[in-house]
Amino acid sequence: MTDAPEPVVITAADVQHLAGLARIALTPEEIEHLAGELTQIVDSVAKVREVATPDVPATSHPVPLVNVLRPDVPGAVLTQQQVLSGAPDASDGRFRVPAILGEEQ
Amino acid sequence: MADGTAFASDALLDYDEALAKYEPVLGFEVHVELSTRTKMFSAAPNPAAADSGSVEPNTMVAPVDMGLPGSLPVVNAQAVRYSISLGLALGCSIAETCRFARKNYFYPDLGKNYQISQYDEPIAFDGSVEVELEDGTTWTVPIERAHMEEDAGKLTHVGGATGRIQGADWSLVDYNRAGVPLVEIVTKPIVGAGAAAPQLAKAYVATIRDIVRSLGISEARMERGNLRCDANVSLRPRGRERFGTRTETKNVNSLRSVERAVRYEIRRQAAILEAGGTIVQETRHWHEDTGTTSAGRPKSDADDYRYFPEPDLLPIQPSAELIAELRAALPETPTQFRRRLQADYGFTESEFRDLVNANLLVELEETVGKGAAPAQARKWWLGEILRIANSRGVEAGTLVSPLHVSELIALVENGDLTDRLARQVLEGVVAGEGSPEEVVKARGLAVVSDDTALTAAIDEALAAQPDVLQKIRDGKVQAAGAVIGAVMKAMRGQADAARVRELVLERAAR
Amino acid sequence: MAAERELVRWSAARLAEALAAGEVSSVEATQAHLDRIGDVDADVHAYLHVAGDDALVRAAEIDRQRADGTAPGPLAGVPIAIKDVLCTSDMPSTAGSRILEGWIPPYDATPVARLRAAGLIPLGKTNMDEFAMGSSTEHSAYGPSRNPWDLTRIPGGSGGGSAAAVAAFEAPVALGSDTGGSIRQPAAVTGTVGVKPTYGGVSRFGAIALASSLDQVGPVSRSVLDAALIHDVIGGHDPNDATSLDERWPSFADAAREGAASGSLAGLKVGVVHQLDGSGFQAGVRQRFGEALKRMAEAGADIVEVQAPHFEYALAAYYLILPAEASSNLAKYDAVRFGLRVDPGGSTVEQVTALSREAGFGPEVKRRIILGTYALSAGYYDAYYGSAQQVRTLVQRDFDACFTQADVLVSPSAPTTAFRLGEKIDDPLAMYLNDITTIPANLAGVPGLGMPIGLAPEDGLPVGLQVMAPLREDARLYRVGATLEAILEREWGGPLLAQAPALGSAASRSDRIRTTPGTAPAPGYGTEPDGGTL
After folding, report:
1. Is the previous residue joined to C158 through a cis bond, with omega within 30 degrees of 0?
2. Same domain, B500 and B357
3. CA C238, C435, A61 angle in degrees (round to 5)?
4. Which of C107, C328, C374 to mutate to test the interface with B (most CBs of B within 10 A)?
């Protein structure tokens, strides 16, 4: 890991794929532009690999706490009106969305 | 089903032929909805809790359940305890430390567009479950892991021809179920069951159901989605080491379906392999109505879930004391339970086997626990209740509660109901008319035990058949039958025949 | 009008005393600030939403309670501005994004609820870079805020709106949020005070998430004491945030008062982090930083140099961790439950979500979402996100080591003074460098305070000092900050902001728009070209 990392090139196809995962309909111009920018950014952030040797544990929380739990006691809920208050579209007390391309998960 | 033609063309190989050539390898992912009072990560009431009735959509929702900006999850302590208990009951090791992770994918029923789950550090791992097949043989199913996660909301597809997702004009989303605590139990590959694979599948899911029920951690009603099974099936030519490509059949939501779906996949895959084809690694959907599976999404890059440790939540480190406490409180295993019941109730092997096969042991025990005699409880569950269940194609345990069965039996024992009336009362209970007591009142079905009313009916019957009393006095006691029949008819069956007989004989003796 | 103009220059502490003494009513104080907003905010654009009459109604209620003797606390009636990243049940909460335009949450963020419970009067919601991604407010979907010291310059970011509001006397105090410097860097470039508390010290519940493991809500003010007063109100355990620290905190206001009154620098070990000491920073920034060290030394502090070798990797780690967490946190904006929906008709929900996110997110948000998606995606996780989390461990260890040698650590809050609007907007990497001194504290969770230490001689713009303390030692920041503030204000003859140019109706147009740098006389010591640290 201490070797200099291979230079990374992020292609337009990569950005297209990532935009699909992130569900953003980028324009072809945005994709081109981002490919260049991300290559630059990734190149500069890749330096983390220089010091991330296997003996170093990962830290995901700045302050180490464990077992932060909540008693199983019912609390406040939103009213149906509150739940739907920001809905772009709703009917029958539910959010209404256009047809789903996929399938049942 | 309207679009059944889309997959009615699956070629199927004869089952015995398939088994002669291929060894099925199974794997299961069973999702158990925990019956905690509140949700996994919010204090909203849990619709999978015991006392939760049907409610209006989007009325059991806290901000985090619908992914409102700024909302945060907090872990339900009871859900963690339940998960540890389940892990222990599955013979698993409990992790000294485990954590939650985000599984990122977009779907409208997922309020945050990520599911909080566990990834590389599940709370329980490496266990095994003993499973007993209908013929009494036992299998040990190896458990890979059991991890905590949250359920998604519910979609209703509107418009289109089928009410299914394909062809729908739009969908409606209700987040009441979003955030219901789940434990996902994942098996290791199950090898060697051979022709018994479908039976083993059913027995495994039934065993999981019995375990979570005996732990009291889930309502475990498959028809309500409290327990959901995804079945992985692959075939390998007999004698080969390497596993074949597997399919994952989703939506298998009854014990009967588990067995059927596995059998179907074995036959379908065998036919493809026999024809020289290859199995596609894909999700398949089980269709209860046609008894078939249909192709879903192939596994692909889209399955890049970008798991990473959930930054809003902290690691869980169950203490040794907690684990010891929960271990000490574990109920007996389903196998131990069966052995105990058989011994306690004195049933013969075949009487007992019937109960096991009908999956009615838990119901039986609870019915006896409410005061019914074991023989009576068995008679009702295996008799009238199972008959109704079979005629409707549902599980007997879902029709009526053990409490109501025990109340029904008590009414018969007390002479308030005849068997015939009791069957009518059962109908009413099954139809949702209330408790046996309530059905008796509402339908006016009680046995007439008022001697005045009976005497009047007997007088009337004797007036019509004046020679009967003399025949009895002459020793032809069976002549009473005609009067008893007439009285019962007059009372529309709501009389205690034994009491009528007593009264008639008394009259003759005067 | 003159009296009102005076009123808006009061600190929250002074205003609270006057309210308690009945010298001024909350309605008067609130109205004065609303008038000031009306006068100058067209130029400054600190606010995205002004509460207006709602604030006056609430103020009148507090005045009644005060008369009845039921006022809820010492700060009751004091107006405050709220960064638009915090959910408010009575005002839109957009996080500076088009995708949340007009969205009114059904609940208050915990810090907001605590402000209300203490009787403070929300004046409105302040501008910010979209979803707090930026260092200038130029990434706000609603246009940038401007620096009250020079309206052609940025007020910092992401919380430039809160800093500008306080610096332009449009609010005595404000709330901000700090993920990599979004409170401290705007404080530096506007000559104000801002504190990023210990991670977990203030609840994140209701703060629209950028990067969950880095975000922290904190106070923005014109004095160290005012920041402490607000911190006392908003801080403390919240069961709705699992990462909230469950412990008793000392009174930060007491710490600030004690620091101002008795001094706290004698014998204090002040560590200058070699890696943040300012080489490569703007000359005026280095100069004022060096002078501040001298003042501390003169007050008895023991200035020591400390090493944090892995801070060099902090920026890189930050720009992996933040986008990764943000890419997930921002997935909820899908046009299903709230926010913008772009539906051309005949589309699937997948297309509608993708089109809505395309239209609703600005370029910086898209850039970071794509970067974060990349960092988490299969095959790259270990190399990027995993490595970044390891660097986080190394940065924490560096802090631990530094704090064995020093009681507090100091650095310039930002490498430069306020730059011009538009100057770095097209160069993301240059923009990211603005947070180079503030990011390590977020990675390690330690608290940091930013405060003004003078104006850079070359451009007459404010320079900020950052003070950092160990985890949970926020009180130390207030003590030290208040002591240094007292020393500096004695030298300056008053607060630094007294030297800021007039705005609004009090200023001529030419005063307001300064186009030549360095036209204002720079206060301070001004003779050393390079303030070198030691």
Report:
1. yes
2. no
3. 35
4. C328
The answer to whether A62 and C321 have CB atoms below 8 angstroms apart is no
Quote the tokens at residue C501: 């140019």
Q: Does B317 touch chain A (CB under 8 A)?
A: yes
- Give φ, ψ of A61 to 5 degrees: -125, 135
Preferred mutation among A59, A63, A69, A101 to probe B, highest tally of B CBs within 10 A: A69
Report pLDDT digits (tens) over C264-279: 999 999 999 999 987 7
Residue C516: exposure state from Cβ atoms within 10 A (0-12, 13-18, ≥19): exposed
**Residues spanned by the domain of B354:** 332-443
Residue C178 domain-assigned (yes or no): yes
- The DSSP letter of residue B306 is -
Subunits that touch chain C (at least 3 Cβ pairs < 8 angstroms)?
A, B
Query: Is C377 a residue of the active site?
Result: no
Contact A37/C389, CB-based, under 8 Å?
Answer: no
Q: DSSP class of residue B434?
A: -
Interface predicted TM-score of the whole assembly (ipTM), two decimals:
0.94
pLDDT in tens, C99-125: 999 999 999 999 999 999 999 999 999
Relative to beta strand B308-309, strand C448-455 is unpaired
Residue B16, class by beta-carbon neighbours within 10 Å (0-12 exposed, 13-18 middle, 19+ buried)?
A: exposed
Rg (CA), chain A: 22
Count of CB atoms situated within 10 Å of the CB of B278: 9
Tokens 């969770």 belong to C445
Kindly state whether C393 is in contact with chain B, defined as any CB-CB distance less than 8 angstroms: no
Residues near C262 by beta carbon (within 8 Å), at least 6 away in sequence: none
Indicate the CATH number for domain A1-54. Answer: 1.10.20
Three-state secondary-structure class, residue C28:
helix
Along chain B (510 residues), what's the average pLDDT of each consecutive run of 10 residues?
Answer: 47 93 96 98 94 85 97 98 98 97 96 97 97 88 98 90 70 97 98 94 94 93 92 93 92 90 96 93 89 80 85 97 96 83 83 79 88 90 90 84 92 85 90 89 77 82 84 83 83 79 82
For chain C, what is the domain count? 1
Give B36's contacts in chain A (Cβ within 8 Å).
72
Q: Name the domain count of chain B.
A: 3
Structure tokens at C40: 């100058």
Query: Does the annotation mark C182 as catalytic?
Result: yes
